[in-house]
Amino acid sequence: MRRTMVAGNWKMHGTRASVAELIDGLAKQTLPGSVDIAVFPSSLHVGQVVNGLQGASIAVGAQDAAVQADQGALTGEIASSQLVDAGCKLVLVGHSERRLLLGESDEVLNRKFAAVQSAGMTPVLCIGETLEQREAKQTLEVVGQQLGSVIKAFGIQALVNAVVAYEPVWAIGTGLTATPEQAQEVHAAIRAQLAKEDSEVAQGVRLLYGGSVKAANAAELFSMPDIDGGLVGGASLNADEFGAICRAAGN
Ligand code: PGA
Q: 59-62 and 122-127: which strand pairing?
């Protein structure tokens, strides 16, 4: 059985004061023990969140990591080994904002994926199509290529300690959510692609849906057979809303 996961991507939001408030709000939530819960603050706030959430059974992750696992001369970047030292357990890799706005290629993302794993953390590989690609009926091809790039580089076993998040770009931060059926169709295709390589690995990998997940639509999305939880952006900045999404995942 796959354990459900809910991950909150705080993106480039937060000040020390607002992060402290969010930590307080999260600590007050009743969270289901059957769900793996994680939050991804900006790197600047990782230490504050790790300290603040001690004992709260919420893991802390980073939104990005350098292409190399170890410390070195790479101005402005953060090594996976440093993230581990700071208390991170997971790292987002390939979020569409980094692919599209910052031009990160599959080659760069593969190096980040490998660095994160080699430091002992779990990469959350984000994949998804743009509206243009969906309208051109290229969704499964695009998503298949993004996932295939990692499989090709490292083999299917590399997915054993990884999470995949399907995030249609047109649904991110737009208030437009994929319908449960639209999301399930892509999740099933992702699992089938993994199963072509190794059915046991395919059955074990958690596939999260992301794109305007909120308390009001979470239960319906999470009820689909191949949706194992969510990657939540905007709604994760509100502790009560995020708590409600976590509870929906626990039902
Ligand atoms: P959203 O973001 O929930 O605000 O749409 C999701 C994400 O980008 O991970």
A: unpaired
Angle in degrees, CA 250, 210, 121, rounded to 5: 80
Q: How far away, in angstroms, is 100 Cα from ligand 1 center? A: 14
**4-9/229-232 β-pairing:** parallel
Whats the size of the chain, residue-wise?
251
- Going by pLDDT thresholds of 50, 70 and 90, the confidence category of residue 1 is confident
pLDDT for position 176: 87
CA atoms within 13 A on the CB side of 41: 26
Q: How far apart are CA 242 and CA 165, in angstroms?
A: 17
Question: Model confidence over 133-162: pLDDT tens digits?
Answer: 999 999 999 999 999 999 999 999 999 999
For 135-169, b/e burial (b = at least 16 CB within 10 A) is eeeebbebbbebbebbbeeeebebbeebbbbbbbb
H/E element holding 6? strand 4-9
With a 6 A CB cut-off, is 139 part of the ligand 1 pocket? no
What pLDDT does 175 receive?
86
Whether the CB-CB separation of 159 and 206 falls below 8 Å is answered with: no
14 lines ligand 1 (CB under 6 A): no
Taking alpha carbons only, the member of 87, 151, 146 closest to residue 119 is: 87
Percentage of the chain exceeding pLDDT 70: 100
Q: Summarize pLDDT for 201-211 with one digit per residue, the tens.
A: 999 999 999 99
